Amino acid sequence: MSAAPLHALDWIALVLYLSFIVGIGVWFGKFTNTTSDFFFGGQKFSWWLVGVSCVATLVGSYSFVNYSEVGFNFGISSVTNYSNDWFVMPLFLLGWLPIIYFSRIQSIPEYFERRFDRRTRMLVLILLLLYLEGYIGINLLTIGVAMNGLFGWNILLSATLMAFLSALYLHAGGQTSVLMTDLFQGFLLLAVGVGVFLAGIFMLGGFGDFWNALPLAHRLPFADFNSPPEFHFIGEFWNDAITGTFAFYFINQGVLMRFLSAKSVHDGRKAMIFVALFLMPIAAIAVGGAGWVGRALVETGLMPEGIEARNAFVAVARFVTRPGIFGIVVAAMLAALMSTLDTLISAVSAIAVNDVWRAWRPDRPDAYYLRAARIAAAISTVVGISLIPVFQQFASIYQALSYFTAIITPPLVVVIFFAITWRRFSPRAAFWTLLLGSGGMWLSLIFPSLVQPLAHGVAPDFGFSYMRSLFGVVVSFVLGVGLTLASPRSEEEPEPGLMLWTLAKGEAGFAGGKPSHRRRARTKPMRLNIDKNAGDEIHLPSKVMKLLHLEPGHRIYVTDARWWLGGFRSLHASAVEGPELDDEILISPEMVRRGGLRVRRPIVVETLP
Amino acid sequence: MRPWLPWLYQYGVGGLLFVVSVWLAARAGAFDRARYSHRKTLLALCVALVLFMTIHAAWIAWVTS
Asked: Rounded CA gap, A439 and A297, in Å?
């Protein structure tokens, strides 16, 4: 990247943006009182808020640089993986999401202990911490390199500065701060990416001129089936559409926590469909668009031919924007980093507290674990920073990324698939599939020819780096099936609610009252009537109980009537029949505080499907 | 260039995975046809899959025509 100095207006835009984000992150921290608030934001947010903030996590700091580079070289097919999440969605939406939501799983390793045994949990714990800390290091290195290119700053120093800013508001507010800041960052990075694309098209003279300037192969939605070896469809399909998507939604603790912050499983499902159907195609244009218009600008002679593909995003953004606006583009890149980084750090913090600290220091007050979570977030940031020099040893950032993800992801993906779909899949099979599967992945790094039989005709030039995922999936699948069939059938049934087959039992046992299977219903705006003797239940007039088809003990959701708060002021509770008050519900001061409700503000009561 | 091969592979293999997942969920009782929210989720998934399949097919046909 060219280290041309930023205009004063760019600096003003950048500093204002960073101050705003840290400010709102720290402000939302005051609503965090418990570890549940810190990790899951109290499971109360609306689908649209979860969805937009999820996109901010999906689009990492490397996305603009990487997809613009690939888009410049190969065209629109660079973002195929933004439109192919659908194949693993049924299992996620109908299986994994309700399983973890209803069983109140606080971390992925915890699921493995409850479904299998302690040693499997410890193995997953190690693999996941490596995976997440590796990702933190990669994100920090990417932004360090980007800032080095933009401003000439030291890589380690600039990465440390950005890590410090993200950790500052995460430390204060946990998941609530992450969600709220990611909401703003999500809008900004989508708007800026799409804005750069549209500005490029405007400079080219319109969409027709842009389209005609692209080479034919650049216009297709898919890359060529198996060539060239550095970018081909079959590698994208197995590495991203199947293994990558499965890993991202099923084992990425940070993403999982985002969906667990939704007010209900139904809202989590809506958030996911909203993301995959509407936001991902927009995000695809945002991250790849600069590369596509960059290619068209070069083809038409508007930009010089010597442009380096890996600099396409910054070069095109500089070319199509004016001083002040370019500062916002740089802010969007930082937003992409911070929004991914805060999620990853909060994920490591959740695992460290729930899987390590609680086991070592059990039965302590919640405030104790909340303090531990904040310390863990700080330590995780420091470890991420310390990994930067390690990743700098690799030839490229992406080589480093593919090396550690390829080893860890496929065995975990296969073991989770069997864990939720196959009753007979035993603890012994799970443990050894993970261990031997990871060993197989290491072997394939030393002997890439092992991948050859599954390479679909891809040339071995890049050590089959994309096809390694398919190899790992096949090896782990064979191991899982073989080890299970070779073991005697276990008489012990795992805890209910941890497999597709026992999901209904898990839902029935979900704390907070009995589930109502009716369609969602809600009241008109009502008022709070505070009574210190009301306890942990919400007392509703009988006509409201009837309107919502509620029986005593059913779970309800009470929320501020202002929809645009996205559930920020709300809580779950059990309903009971109370005094016949006109348009009022009876509630204790403690419950009002817990939900962050405003006494004078109208609320609505909802049933959740 | 074999522009249709990726499309056939993606929606053939991916589609098979999609169908098997729905079948597994239904067989295990995780998908309950009697529940409105479950029906709505499955409908959204199927519509989205067909939508993307159609858009990709139309796109390839347009570019190669």
From this structure: 47
pLDDT tens figures, B32-63: 888 888 999 999 999 999 999 999 999 999 99
**Domain assignments of chain A as residue spans, ordered by start:** 8-483, 527-607
Contact between A95 and A420 (Cβ < 8 Å): yes
Instruction: State whether B21 and A221 contact (CB < 8 Å).
Output: no
The answer for residues whose C-beta is within 8 angstroms of residue A148's C-beta and 6 or more apart is A1, A3, A154, A155, A158
CATH topology for A527-607 is: Barwin-like endoglucanases (2.40.40)
A412: tokens are: 């975990």
pTM of the shown model:
0.86
Domain range A8-483, its CATH number among 3.40.630.30, 1.20.1730.10, 3.40.190.10, 1.10.275.10: 1.20.1730.10
Asked if A94 lies within 8 A of B48 by C-beta distance, the reply is: no
Can you count the helices (H) and strands (E) in chain B? 2, 0
Taking only the tens place, the pLDDT of each residue in A450-472 is 999 999 999 887 767 788 889 99
Q: Provide, as residue numbers in chain B, all residues whose Cβ is less than 8 Å from the Cβ of A241.
A: 10, 14
Q: How far, in Å, CA of A78 to CA of A201, rounded?
A: 18
Q: Measured between alpha carbons, how far is A264 from A272 in angstroms, rounded to an integer?
A: 13
Residue of A nearest to B55 (CA): A221
